[in-house]
Amino acid sequence: MSVNDVTLTVSFLNGELCTISTCLDATLGDVKAKISKETGHSPWSQRLSLGATPLEDSSKPLKDLGVTGASPLSLVLVREPIGQSNLAAPNGMKESILKKGDRKPKESFNEFEFMSWQAVCASHNSHGTGLCAHRSQHLWTDEDSSPVLGASHLDLYWTTRSDGCRYEYWSSDPGDNEYGVLVCIDAEGMTAIGMGCDDGLGIFAECDTSDVINELIREGLTRPEGC
User: Fold this and answer.
1) Which end of the chain is more exposed for a tag (fewer CB within 10 A), N or C?
2) Architecture per CATH, 5-77
3) pLDDT tens across 137-170, in order?
4) pTM attached to this predicted model
């Protein structure tokens, strides 16, 4: 057995224990995947701590996080963002999720995409024009409503972050008079929190910011990690 090989003991709040065989070069994400295989709890629902220190960067090797074979880890489970289990990966994108001329978003999107799209439409009503051309009061649930997609189509980007939320960015005409809406999704609901354009992403004045949201603003969110 290599000195790099370790067996980690992971304790749940209810006293349940889980042991994981791994190595110190493995990433925190690798450990979460093994815990998921052993317990059925998805990696996105796991919050691991080393003593009082939260372990948040899933891309870092255990040895860089201060973990050793003698390190007991604590695991707290949190509720996943709505629709998280429907995604193949925590970060990704769908190009042309809606093409110009398509008139039925409800038929083009899955259940959770449509819920997010409704949040986009609600923000349009509150904050001005852009993706939507409203001809009814039913938030795109009938055939008499259709989105204005500029000269091209609608793209959807998403990224799941350390705050336990998934952020979805709906973008029309990126690079050519782009208009976009940022939606924050947690276990309770979906809320549009900002708008984007070719000049960048801005958060609505009534919405709180955080380190995670400030990071999204710096990144622009049009190329989430892992895409």
Assistant:
1) N
2) Roll (3.10)
3) 333 333 345 555 555 678 899 998 878 899 999 9
4) 0.70
